[in-house]
Amino acid sequence: MASEDVVGKSRSDSAVSTIVNLAEEAKLASEGVKAPSHAAIFSICKSLVAGGVAGGLSRTAVAPLERLKILLQVQNPHNIKYNGTLQGLKYIWRTEGFRGLFKGNGTNCARIVPNSAVKFFSYEQASRGILWLYRQQPGNEDASLTPLLRLGAGACAGIIAMSATYPMDMVRGRLTVQTDKSPYQYRGMFHALSTVLREEGARALYKGWLPSVIGVVPYVGLNFAVYESLKDWLVKSRPFGLVEDAELSVPIRLACGAAAGTVGQTVAYPLDVIRRRMQMVGWSNASSVVTGDGRAKASLEYNGMIDAFRKTVRNEGFRALYKGLVPNSVKVVPSIAIAFVTYESVKDVLGVEMRISD
User: Which parts are the Solcar repeats (predicted)?
Assistant: First the structure.
């Protein structure tokens, strides 16, 4: 009996020990699953915050030039108010004051912050996915991102970000072109959204979406491709004795961003002009359609992107596709540069190890 008790006790202890071990293993496994998950979510949030801060800061810094660019794009060719960058900025200052220079910037930031956050994050994920697919091909197991792959990842990021925030861009354009001489139809961003929905329907919030998406492919794609490729070349060629990406100074990063912005906006600018004009269709209170005596004048109607291109070139010439290019160029150079540098700097501050170069 004693030996049976001992055997029973031994088996009981063994069973308890097994259960305890299984419980501990389950606990460790559970913790092992949860920890990376929480860490990944936290890293994603920090990456989105970095992108949002980069977008808001870079766009606010050039808000006056952004507003002037849109006013030049859509102004009535028979009632010219803005003849250039300096004259246009002085005219806005004289007629609307300091606040006029930043009109529409609140709405713009409400759009650009999530847009920039989604864009940078989407680029990181798209570049990872594209590189993974590229490495599945025989002989490319150890391949790295090429300028063409970066262009594809940037294009994907631009399309996703543009589509997600396009209604905000549409109403921002209308808020921006309102002046003291045009009836104030919109009191703010939410009033503009509700008014357009009520008077023109939900489809109106996506007027000009097609040229926007077509334009964002070369614009955002080239921005990322040129910026990352320039940095990669600087590191590999070592003209300044650099050995890794982290050693690139802020001025060098700003120069890379400026070059990226210049190339991207020059290629995509005509599509941006057409997008703005299509957004104004159906609205008679834009500054572009107000005559000298303050009366509203009917705007051109466009049946689509091709029709808008054709009518713009026929009525105003090919140069009309580049209206506002000068203030836009002055704006894009610091804007894109500030966005890239701010994004990477904020990620460094927040402790996010993954960089867009990775």
Answer: 42-129, 145-233, 248-349
Query: Tell me, what's the pLDDT at 168?
Result: 84
Query: Rounded to an integer, what distance in angstroms lies between the CA atom of residue 315 and that of residue 235?
Result: 49
Domain count, the chain: 1
**pLDDT tops 80 at residue 150:** yes
CATH of the domain at 92: 1.50.40.10
Could you tell me the pLDDT band of residue 119, with boundaries at 50, 70 and 90? very high
- Give the Cα-Cα-Cα angle 266, 326, 101 (nearest 5 degrees): 120
The pLDDT score that the predictor gives to residue 156 is: 93
Q: Which of 66, 72, 64 is nearest to 288 (CA)?
A: 72
Within-domain flag for 232: yes
Enumerate residues 6+ apart whose C-beta is below 8 A from 155: 216, 217, 218, 220, 221
- The residue type found at 348 is D
Q: Which residues contact 3 (CB under 8 A, 6 or more apart)?
A: none
Residues 6+ apart with CB under 8 A from 164: 114, 115, 118
Mean pLDDT of 111-135: 90
Query: pTM for this one?
Result: 0.68
Secondary structure (3-state) at 296: strand
